[in-house]
Amino acid sequence: MTDGWDWRQPGGTPAPAGRPAPGSPPYDAGGGTTSPWWSDALADPWRDPYAPAAVVVPAAPGGGGEPEPVTDPDAPGRPKLRQLLLIPLITALLAGALGGALGYAFAVRGSAGGVALGARPADPPALAQRKPESLAGVAEKVLPSVVTVRVSSLGGISEGSGFIVSADGHVVTNDHVVSGGTGKASVIFNDGTSALGTVVGQDPESDIAVIKVSRTGLKPVEFGDSDALAVGDPVLAIGSPLSLANTVTAGIVSALDRTMQAGEPGGPVRYYAAIQTDAAVNHGNSGGPLVDAAGRVVGVNSTIKSLVADGQEAGNIGLAFAIPINQAKRVTQDIIGTGKARRTVIGAQVGGIGVASGAGVRLNAVEPSGPAAAAGLKAGDVILRLNGRPMTEPTDLVALVRKYAPGSVVTVEYRRGSTRQNASVTLAADAK
Questions:
Q1: Are 325 and 339 in contact (CB under 8 A)?
Q2: Which of 62, 184, 303, 341 has the fewest Cβ atoms within 10 angstroms?
Q3: Which residues pair with 382 in a beta bridge?
Q4: Hey, what CATH class is 344-429 in?
Q5: Is residue 292 among the annotated active site residues?
Q6: Of 226, 286, 292, 302, which is the active-site residue?
Q7: How many CB atoms lie within 10 A of CB 9?
């Protein structure tokens, strides 16, 4: 008794006897079915644990019963020509990239062993081929003439700079470099050799001293004209700042005729109308040359301004002052020729500023036979200008007068009462 569904295995084999046919509904002992919904699952082969796990595909009509060949898309096929060409190309590219990376890594790691990195630079020009007007050309020209000066004294060793002014061994430096010494100095030349020198003479008020060394064939400096300088002209300061020999610093002329009054306590007072520069100048530069763009000496580096208190070590802040070379050369010639220097005077005593601050300097006294008296100046006159340079402090008149050589004629603008007048004054040397 079935419900109309006759199951057979593929090939028409009936279900084995002795067990219910797969998919037949179970019956209970009373002949009734145990599940009223069994007929709903008759068409579901997954409910029958005896259902075969085979899929029967009907043969195509006229196919002779032979199954249609099936091709696996994942199965490896015969390589094509494009693939044969791409494989070695990709392999070569990968090998090249790997080789380049390894080569770079080995080059970097082996740089300490002498491997050169980068392109070979062009050969720099030889020093002798540098243009004479370049900073290097100027330094090359002047450095052989610059020296370091060391002087022993009771207080220790004083060190400064200097420069050769004659082939037979005359060296110019500052008076404050050799003052307090024994009259002997050690001069160290640009090539590192040294010689013992003797102080020929010194002028404390102009801060110039001359040393003579027993050596010939030296290269002297070339002198320039300090009166031809203009504010903004390039300059080099050369010397031995802080014991660093052969040091070159660059700057410009910051100001001209900057009147200076300098000196140590208890020592002489020095007056000069200085060349101000912003070239770096420090202790040890004293006595060294200030040169122009052509390598000609235009000044003698002498003093600096600083922001430190008295007794502390001063350093460069871009305010350095040099004695004009026209004045220093004249003093040097006097010292070499006579052992001492002449001092230029106007023949009057300056007592104070004018009626209003910055309105000139007043003459307290005028020497009867001096240059000022010969030009008609009198005590009480207020000097307003000297060769066009305004007078604001007594130091201005003294420093500017000493800038000129004895016998120079200067124009003086002065005020007497409420009247302004001009006079030509022929400066003279003092009686010392």
A1: no
A2: 62
A3: 362, 415
A4: mainly beta
A5: no
A6: 286
A7: 14
Q: What phi and psi values does residue 147 have, to the nearest 5 degrees? A: -130, 165
CA atoms within 13 A on the CB side of 317: 8
Residue 305 is predicted with a pLDDT of 86
Task: Give the Cα separation of 89 and 372 in Å (integer).
Answer: 103
Alpha carbon 252 to chain centroid, angstroms: 17
H or E element that contains 351: strand 348-353
- Residue 209 pLDDT > 70: yes
Among 176, 203, 206, 278, the active-site one is 176
**What average pLDDT does the segment 340-345 reach?**
92
Q: Looking at this protein, which amino acid is placed at residue 372?
A: A
pLDDT score for 174: 96
Average pLDDT estimate for 140-156: 92
* 418 against 236, higher pLDDT: 236
Does the active-site annotation cover 176?
yes
The fold for domain 135-213 equals Thrombin, subunit H (2.40.10)
Task: Give the predicted TM-score (pTM) of the model.
Answer: 0.70
Residues paired with 350 in a beta bridge: 363
Residue 123, pLDDT > 50, answer yes
- Under a CB-based contact definition with an 8 Å cutoff, are residues 335 and 201 in contact? yes
Torsion of CA 297, 300, 304, 310, to 10 degrees: 170
Residue 409 is predicted with a pLDDT of 96
Is 286 annotated as catalytic? yes
What is the spatial distance between Cα 367 and Cα 374, in angstroms, rounded to a whole number? 9
Strand-pair partners of 270? 262
Q: The domain 225-334 is classified under which CATH number: 3.40.50.2000, 3.50.50.60, 2.60.40.1180, 2.40.10.10?
A: 2.40.10.10
